[in-house]
Design goal:
This protein has 371 residues and is of the alpha+beta class. 28% of the residues lie in helices and 25% in strands. It folds into 2 domains: 2-281, Aminopeptidase (3-Layer(aba) Sandwich), CATH 3.40.630.10; 288-358, Beta Barrel (OB fold (Dihydrolipoamide Acetyltransferase, E2P)). It has helices spanning 44-61, 77-80, 108-115, 123-140, 146-158, 184-194, 210-224, 250-267; strands at 2-7, 18-25, 31-36, 68-72, 83-84, 87-88, 163-168, 172-173, 176-180, 198-202, 236-241, 283-286, 290-294, 299-303, 310-311, 316-321, 328-332, 337-342, 347-348, 353-358. A 9-stranded mixed beta sheet has the order 1-2-4-3-7-11-9-10-12, with helices on both faces. 44% of the residues are buried. Keywords: Hydrolase, Metal-binding, Zinc.
Length: 371
């Protein structure tokens, strides 16, 4: 295993942060990229990365890694260091207010124009040409800030991968996944290996999050060239929501790491007998059918249903209680669906999103992700 250190742009004299990437196997075959805690205060992924490292070290020592595997065990050195009054704030950069998982740069049109004369009827050759050009464009992109340098480095490490896994978590939640609709055929076995109850699908959900920045180039290039050249969906990129923020245990993390290893072995990046794909325990639903539950008032928040429940439209999920007037406001599900995530805060502000229910029909439009 090779350890590479990638200095970020220094934000001030006397300060310097860096990204650290761990490299297993060798380039030339399939490539998998796994990163943890792009939101710096979402810690289950870091523990999964720790267990992945232990398992990958053993597999490398046994000569079983047949592809290239890149592991970034802490993808956000900026966010991991942001504390305000002892509260860890790792979702938004404090300087700009920007979400660390949004606004990844788009090189699609520039790369398409640069490589069009080189493309032909060989899909595999087209993939290689496009990957080389994309990596060069990402590495040459100008940067002005530390945050931009972090985004550029993460993209440079991942943009030429066949598989990209971005390890996150929700507040209190079931294991669930986000991926683009064109990726679902390749994602479905991963969902089975991970035991995911739900995969949320969208095609361009808005604001260019990291996972979509890696996968959308392929379907957008296919659309750009209008079928004149064969261009497959050459990257499976998935946001893996590792349950809730406090689900940080060795038991869960070691099992999740083993399931990722089994998937990589099934895909051929690790030698040995292919594992049997497990039975599905969940399904795929449109991200536009994932309905946020908002509180119209402020007060003490208490849930009356647990995550994992199948709920009906109009069913009460939580109460918001005004401690002065004793008024109780019921928060109800707007659709039939899976109650898959809720906040861990127990005081709601007016307008606060406190839970999510995944329905089966696409009802929302516009930007589909939260802040």
């Amino acid at each position: 295993m090779n350890i590479l250190r990638h200095p970020l742009l220094s934000p001030a004299p006397g300060t310097q942060r860096e990204l650290v990437s761990l490299h297993y196997g060798r380039p030339g075959g399939q490539k998998a990229y796994v990163q943890a805690s792009l939101h710096g205060d979402e810690l289950p992924g870091m523990l999964v990365a720790h267990h992945l490292r232990l398992q990958l070290d053993a597999l490398e020592a046994a000569g079983q890694i047949s592809g290239e595997i890149v592991l970034v065990p802490m993808a956000n050195p900026i966010g991991i260091s942001q504390f305000v009054l002892h509260a860890h704030l790792g979702r938004f950069e404090l300087t700009t207010g920007e979400n660390f998982n949004r606004h990844y740069p788009d090189q699609i049109d520039a790369v398409a124009a640069a490589v069009e004369p080189q493309l032909g009827n060989d899909a595999k050759a087209n993939v290689s040409i496009l990957r080389r050009a994309l990596k060069a464009a990402v590495e040459a992109a100008p940067i002005d800030t530390e945050l931009q340098s972090q985004r550029r480095q993460l993209m440079a490490l991942s943009c030429d991968a066949d598989i990209v896994l971005d390890l996150h978590c929700d507040a209190q939640a079931l294991m669930h996944l986000y991926t683009e609709t064109p990726c679902w055929p390749d994602c479905e076995p991963l969902a089975r290996f991970l035991g995911s109850r739900l995969t949320l699908l969208a095609q361009d959900s808005g604001d260019n999050p990291f996972d979509e920045a890696c996968s959308q180039v392929w379907w957008k290039w296919a659309k750009h060239f209008g079928g004149r050249f064969p261009i497959p969906q050459a990257c499976l990129s998935v946001t893996v929501e590792l349950r809730g923020a406090t689900d940080v245990t060795h038991e869960l993390a070691s099992a999740d790491a083993k399931n990722i290893i089994d998937f990589l072995r099934w895909r051929g990046l690790i030698a040995g007998d292919k594992p049997v794909v497990p039975e599905a325990v969940g399904d795929a639903r449109p991200l536009a059918g994932s309905m946020p539950i908002k509180s119209p008032v402020a007060g003490v928040l208490t849930f009356v249903r647990e995550v994992g429940a199948e709920v009906g439209a109009g069913e009460v999920l939580a109460h918001v209680i005004d401690p002065i007037t004793a008024q109780v406001t019921e928060l109800k599900s707007p659709v039939d669906g899976l109650f898959f995530a809720r906040d861990f805060l127990r005081f709601a502000n007016a307008g606060m999103r406190v839970a999510k229910v995944a329905g089966r029909e696409a009802l929302r439009t516009g930007k589909l992700l939260g802040a």
